[in-house]
Design brief:
This protein has helices spanning 21-28, 75-105, 109-136, 151-170, 174-202; strands at residues 3-6, 9-11, 37-44, 47-49, 67-74. It is of the alpha+beta class.
């Protein structure tokens, strides 16, 4: 690895150890230039890199990396970005639901489960961003967001719905799973779209 930059600033590549991309990124997290910041973009040899499966970065050996460029944001900046654009992400999740529901109801369980698991992964990312945003904005669990109740109560209800979905999936009750997705989860996502700007207002 000859070139290593963080937000355009050059680092000495040799001081960052690691036999593969995952180890390098983990070690970089302790470096002063990255510490307490969140990596938002990774460029390997000039190309944008993202994992298609967990820990895929283990397969990217250091010897194949000529250049590594990172773009980072502070937790506060990332939270503000999420507050301003999170509704787009949640709306994309809502638009993905009808196809998954239809596949479960048509009995195409293999295709439906594949799309469902991808959907859950994206939803968990949104939930994690909400939790991170709540912390970075100093919002307490008991903060009321208009008629939606407290943030904590909403998050607990959403987590309960997700746990219920996973339990139903394990029981292979595809019709019931489709019903929960179409009615309970879609309503929760609608509420989430309404809550995001309220969270931003409460944080000011």
């Amino acid at each position: 690895m000859n070139i290593l930059t963080v937000d355009g600033n050059n680092l000495t590549a040799k001081e960052i150890t690691g036999a593969n991309l995952e180890e390098i990124l983990m070690n970089l997290m302790d470096h002063p230039s990255v510490n307490n910041r969140i990596i938002t973009k990774v460029l390997v040899n000039g190309d944008s890199y993202s994992e298609e499966v967990p820990h895929a970065a283990l397969e990217v050996e250091r010897t194949t990396i000529e250049s590594l460029e990172l773009v980072t944001k502070s937790a506060e900046d990332l939270s503000l970005h999420f507050m301003e654009n999170g509704h787009y992400f949640v709306d994309m999740l809502r638009k993905a639901l009808p196809k998954i529901v239809e596949e479960f109801r048509m009995g195409d369980e293999v295709e439906a489960n594949e799309h469902f698991l991808s959907f859950l992964e994206s939803l968990h990312l949104v939930i994690n961003m909400m939790e991170q945003t709540k912390v970075s904005m100093g919002l307490g669990d008991d903060i009321e967001v208009a008629d939606k109740g407290s943030i904590n109560n909403f998050m607990e209800k959403l987590s309960s719905t997700l746990s219920n979905l996973i339990s139903i999936q394990e029981q292979s009750d595809w019709i019931y799973l489709a019903d929960i997705l179409e009615y309970e989860l879609d309503n929760a996502l609608c509420d989430l779209i309404d809550i995001l700007p309220l969270m931003k207002k409460a944080g000011h």
